[in-house]
Design the sequence.
């Protein structure tokens, strides 16, 4: 059955126009911008590689990238660990399974703004719930958001709390692809719970594991609103994330050329990390 | 006994996910002087925090803005996404592969690269402080197109050919035959898009400065970090609750669909 030749093009035309305006042009223009100094109002000034030189000497930007990696290094393993345990539990026949699943998933649907405001109170030094529990059991208070060595970890814990429900669900889907007779065979061999987990479950859910790692890496690299609300990047710039820094350069100081350079550079780092992860995954497969 | 410990542990875990929300609601209803105490039920309930919030920020207007923006974005993503998904899955034309690769490229492109130039576009178009700035960049979504394409592939082509013999146009085929047969995909993409749009906060912070055009997450964020709440915790929490409530109510009723939709985000490669 033939349709009119032009019809498919009409159907995809809106997408192509949208792509040209909001993706293709910005990508090209962002590269042009990296060679210029511009605050939008006055005319653009060509500055050659100045922005790049400045970038490599910008210790705060390099710190913000390091901070983002610190966040990822705490957040991803923690998230996988907690999500796997909860998914393993929910995969058994337990009482009120639906309720538990719904509870773990609740923070996923709620805005990060709300979650951040909530945890800001939980983390509060004198009045927060966490420090109250600590002092009740006779321990010292922790400067969750005021100690530069702790603040990023606190944010990583909060992000885990917010997102883990999603990964529980993804792992649950993965766990259900494991054929039950694998476990039955292992039972006959007298395998214990840990042996079954490491020899059957873990290899079988590898695809889910990789997906979870890549999804949470991309999510982690866009860390912004949590430090924006909670700490403003402090204390001592210990929680300033790369996106927060780019935001400040672009929309606080109006350094369009420089912010664009930072964005491009950071995007390349993200792509590099994802490519390395994918390479690793393909080898493992 | 072992069972009991297991359930107590699990219950504790579940509570740690729910308790903060309950505390937030209760704190927003308590008089400011009682909030510090972390007790779940204050001695006296008061709507003070809410009335103060309403007098301080145009939260009603922000609610309207958020609903308007998210609804239009969702509608646009469904209509345009299904159009492209349909062309890619059911129609043959030159350049089809190329468009598919463009979509994949868009999906892997980190947003950090387009953030600044997109803002400059908004300035040059004169769209800063307009609804269009909040809507236009989001009207297309690569993931939605891929999901529609996947789903439409599973619908038999015979169904479409029969309609074509009856003289149906392609758009009519898409909306009267494919759409009713693709409800699960529409629900999934609809929920994902609406939630993403509703919770988006970085972009509004960039393109909207006029308070009457702010979306809810943006207004609540600025209220929380700015000085206008006069450090009154209850008032801040009240605004956070108003932001969380619509999605939480929807989640309560359509929990199954929410979870299914979010689980399918994992289907992308």
Sequence:
């Amino acid at each position: 059955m033939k349709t009119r030749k032009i019809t498919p093009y009409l159907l995809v035309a809106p997408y192509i126009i949208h792509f040209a305006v909001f993706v293709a042009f910005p990508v090209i223009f962002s590269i042009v911008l990296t060679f210029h100094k511009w605050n939008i109002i006055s005319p653009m000034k060509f500055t050659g590689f100045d922005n790049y030189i400045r970038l490599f000497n910008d210790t705060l930007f390099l710190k913000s990238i390091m901070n983002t990696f610190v966040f990822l290094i705490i957040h991803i393993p923690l998230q996988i660990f907690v999500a796997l345990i909860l998914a393993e539990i929910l995969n058994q026949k337990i009482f009120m399974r639906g309720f538990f699943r719904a509870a773990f998933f609740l923070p996923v649907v709620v805005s990060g703004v709300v979650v951040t405001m909530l945890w800001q109170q939980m983390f509060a030094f004198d009045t927060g719930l966490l420090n109250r529990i600590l002092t009740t059991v006779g321990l010292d208070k922790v400067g969750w958001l005021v100690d530069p060595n702790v603040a990023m970890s606190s944010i990583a814990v909060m992000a885990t709390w917010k997102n883990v429900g999603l990964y529980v669900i993804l792992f649950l889907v993965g766990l259900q692809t494991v054929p039950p007779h694998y476990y039955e065979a292992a039972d006959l061999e007298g395998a214990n719970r840990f042996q079954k987990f490491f020899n059957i479950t873990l290899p079988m859910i590898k695809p889910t594991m990789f997906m979870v790692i890549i999804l949470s890496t991309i999510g982690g690299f866009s860390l912004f609103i949590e430090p924006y609300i909670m700490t403003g990047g402090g204390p001592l710039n210990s929680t300033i994330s790369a996106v927060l820094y780019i935001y400040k350069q672009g929309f606080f100081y109006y350094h369009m050329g420089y912010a664009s350079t930072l964005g491009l550079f950071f995007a390349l780092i993200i792509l590099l990390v994802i490519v390395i992860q994918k390479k690793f995954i393909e080898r493992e497969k | 006994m072992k069972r009991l410990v297991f359930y107590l542990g699990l219950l504790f875990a579940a509570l740690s996910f729910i308790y903060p929300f309950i505390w937030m609601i209760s704190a927003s209803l308590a008089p400011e002087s009682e909030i510090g105490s972390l007790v779940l039920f204050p001695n006296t309930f008061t709507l003070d925090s809410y009335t103060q919030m309403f007098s301080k920020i145009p939260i009603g207007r922000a609610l309207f803005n958020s609903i308007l923006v998210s609804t239009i974005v969702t509608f646009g993503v469904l209509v345009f996404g299904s159009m492209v998904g349909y062309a890619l899955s059911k129609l043959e034309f030159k350049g089809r592969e190329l468009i598919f690769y463009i979509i994949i490229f868009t999906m892997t492109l980190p947003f950090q690269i387009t953030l600044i130039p997109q803002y400059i576009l908004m300035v040059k178009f004169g769209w800063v402080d307009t609804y269009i700035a909040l809507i236009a960049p989001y009207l297309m979504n690569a993931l939605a197109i891929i999901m529609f394409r996947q789903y439409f592939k599973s619908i038999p082509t015979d169904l479409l050919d029969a309609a074509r013999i009856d003289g149906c146009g392609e758009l009519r085929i898409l909306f009267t035959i494919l759409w009713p047969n693709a409800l699960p995909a529409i629900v999934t993409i609809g929920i994902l898009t609406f939630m993403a749009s509703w919770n988006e906060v970085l972009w509004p912070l960039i393109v909207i400065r006029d308070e009457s055009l702010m979306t809810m997450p943006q207004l609540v964020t600025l209220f929380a970090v700015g000085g206008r709440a006069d450090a009154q915790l209850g008032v801040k929490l009240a605004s956070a609750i108003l932001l969380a409530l619509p999605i939480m109510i929807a989640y309560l009723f359509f929990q199954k669909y929410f979870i299914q939709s979010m689980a399918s985000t994992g289907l992308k490669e």
Summary: Chain B touches chain A through 83 residues (CB under 8 Å). Chain B has a mean pLDDT of 88. DSSP finds 13 helices and no strands in chain B.
